[in-house]
Amino acid sequence: MAPHPKLVLASASPRRLDLLQQIHITPDLVLPADIDETAHNNELPRDYVTRITCAKVQAVVDKPETDNCYILGADTTVACGRRILPKAEDETTARACLKLLSGRRHKIYGGIAIISPDGTLTHRVVLTTVGFKRLHADEIESYIQSSEWHGKAGGYAIQGYAAAFVTFLQGSYTNVVGLSLYDSAQLLNGQGYSITHVDRDSRPEN
Fold this sequence. Notes:
The chain is α/β, with parallel strands linked by helices. Helices cover 30% and strands 23% of the residues. Strands 1, 2, 3, 4, 5, 6 and 7 form a seven-stranded mixed beta sheet that branches. Strand 3 and strand 4 (83-84) form a beta hairpin.
């Protein structure tokens, strides 16, 4: 019997790796894509996340390590209306995001892209709506001090203390964390990568 093709995760996010392991998928290789993630002028959130997600898998498809492999890439974009929120790398950005999200609903666009061993590209955008309670200044400052916001799209991590801010959620919870597990499993199975073949004791290479 021919060996089952390997799975490459084109993402540096430890959250996505942890999420995949929840459904017993352990990538054989983690190979982060190095791409420019700057949004284009007037680019809509859905268009942006589709472009970035596909670019991630395409950036590693020609590497020798990915030959005859499935390549999985993902991106998470937080948006208020047409406005794409940044990944918070400093307190000022995180604080601005939280003030904007306070007392309103926003959208999480989760992009998933897969390139199969035969070169077929499949992608999907998963949409989740999240509502925040009105945040008081001391709540925002307390969250800033937690540092959970660092590197997170929209300046928060729903799997942490920010869960206390959520008044409404419609759609996939794991999509907000970083990767819709249902949609990832469906796309992988649809391309012939059955999760029942996964070696549950394997560990990814870095």
